[in-house]
Amino acid sequence: MKQFLLPVFLLFILVGCENDSDETPLASYTIEGKWLFAPDTPGISDQGVSNTMYIFENGTRYTYYCVGDDCESQYETFEAGDSNAIPGTNAYTFEDGILTIDLNSNNMQVLPLIFECDGNKINFQDPESPDRYDWIKLGTDCN
User: Is position 87 within any domain?
Assistant: First the structure.
């Protein structure tokens, strides 16, 4: 009987350990919020902050540009749909790790992505554009 229980016990422990993962399921992360190009993107300001910010909220993407020296502080004051956004918006959906943005005129941007840095960094997995720049959430330090 002991010979039977030992392999069953070991199998139970091994299967249990395989399910213990440090990875957080994709479904627990959201695209909603304020996103900037990552600091290692070419053309980033001397402060290391992108001159473009996107706010994703309730299926609408808003675009903002920095027009001052302290972009991060400026971005923190912006709210989705306020008068600081450039004219026009884009509808989006986010399902099963795919961000789809309607760029209008039947032009869809389909972006497979992976969240990193506890959901505060987006690593785009686009085989048609492997050099696509990552995004980080405003106020995040993902070094």
Answer: yes
Closest CA relative to residue 91, chosen from 76, 101, 99 = 101
Q: Reduce the secondary structure of 7-70 to three states and give it as a string.
A: HHHHHHHHHHHHHCCCCCCHHHCCCCEEEEECCCCCCCCCCCCCCEEEEEECCEEEEEECCCCC
Q: How many domains does the chain have?
A: 1
pTM: 0.76
Strand bridging mode 33-37 / 52-57: antiparallel
What is the gyration radius of the CA atoms in the chain, in angstroms? 21
- pLDDT (tens digit, 9 = 90+) per residue, 91-130? 999 999 999 999 988 899 999 999 999 999 999 887 777 7
